[in-house]
Queue: 3 jobs
Job 1
Amino acid sequence: MSLNAQHTMQRATIAAGLAILALFWGCAKQPPSLLDNLEQPGMSREELRATLYDFVIRFSGDVEVASFYIISESGDLVMARYALLWLANVTPAVQSAAFRSDPAAGMFDVWALCLQQQEFFERGPGKERFGEWQSLAVNASKNLVDEIQGIAKTVTGAKYDQVKSGVDEWVDANPIETVIFTRESTAPLTAAALGSVSAGAVAAVGNMADEVRDLSARIS
């Protein structure tokens, strides 16, 4: 084969590869979302994604303020260690929940985590860990639940009560047992909450466009 023929074949192969990549990218750009199961969702996919990212910042900030106040005011090394464990473990947990390819699935997971955290400090194993400063953890958890439920109400609209019932049931069945905040996936919950449409897509790895666009936010 001549050198020119080899170059021609290489260019053809590269062009074909780029065409396939472009086609894949275009198809993957907006995969199905749980939002598709709502008649009139209160937010677009991108609006919900941005809202979740903002919420993660506030979540982490509220937990940080509460935990550091407990540490500085109590002067108790055992409480201080527990407060630091709370901050160190729940922060990556909420980030992992929010940074999903489908922001609707992320919203449900964050919602469930907020309720689990509230239950943990109100009635669960963490209910007496901070003594007279326990209200700091409880109030921070309650405020975060109120905020994420406000977001969920805007998104789900008329289906809010139905969806909330499913989230509450899941949280009751999946309590947080330790301050390590080890959790089960809410993927089955999200699929059942709004129907089976696109459940496979929600469980899939996700699309390249979203992953590239979210990379800087994930690193931050």
Note: The two ends are 51 Å apart (CA to CA).
Job 2
Amino acid sequence: MKECLISVDLANAIRSLVDVMKLKVPEGDLGFTCKECGKPVKPFQGGMQGPHFEHLERNDDCSLSDT
């Protein structure tokens, strides 16, 4: 499978569309993966961190996962 990067803004737009259409997404996995470890991530709109991706499950072996 070929890799491709997606901006967090586009990922959030897709997440919003999924929510509005009330689509069933197994365990919240929209198909986005971490560019470092390949584990599932989901986009967030912001808050104090601004738009970003977070791992669905913490991954202590990934430097991009929250600690």
Note: The first strand starts at residue 41 and ends at 44.
Job 3
Amino acid sequence: MTRITFILGGARSGKSRYAETLAAKHPGRKTYIATAEALDDEMRARIAQHRAQRGNGWDTIEAPLDLVGALERSADLMLIDCITLWISNLMHHKCDVEREVEKLCAALKSKAKVVIVSNEVGLGIVPDNQLARAFRDEQGRANQRLAEIADDVIFVAAGLPLVLKKSQPKPARAKTARSSPADKA
């Protein structure tokens, strides 16, 4: 697994399940950083479903606003789910989203292994109100910034992963051939 894996897709595309499956293969201590808040029965049910789906073996940090603080904790692998709800929370609390995304990107550069989940919200119609358009724009810019620093970027549609960006393995050092006296003749 690469250092930063960014997984995005539409609602109910299978992106969280894919991220959890990918992360489960990683040995060591895993931390799930959840950005959702259980503000109603439907969201409580979604959170319960996610917890049951990933099973035991995970530490969980609830970080609806302070992702950078959550990343300061130690783990062999961290999974952030999801950037979309985090941005919604930031906007609701009137935070500077661009500044928070930049702080997150800086913090991610020092982490060993991180899987990040986000929604792709720019594939539909233009929203009919200013708040929804502002959210779509903030989400799109955040996705671009995270994709830029990620080693791997995977788009999930209908549960199927499509690799958009793949880190390149470091090339092996070429062996230099030594010439023999016969080569000089």
Note: The chain has a mean pLDDT of 88.
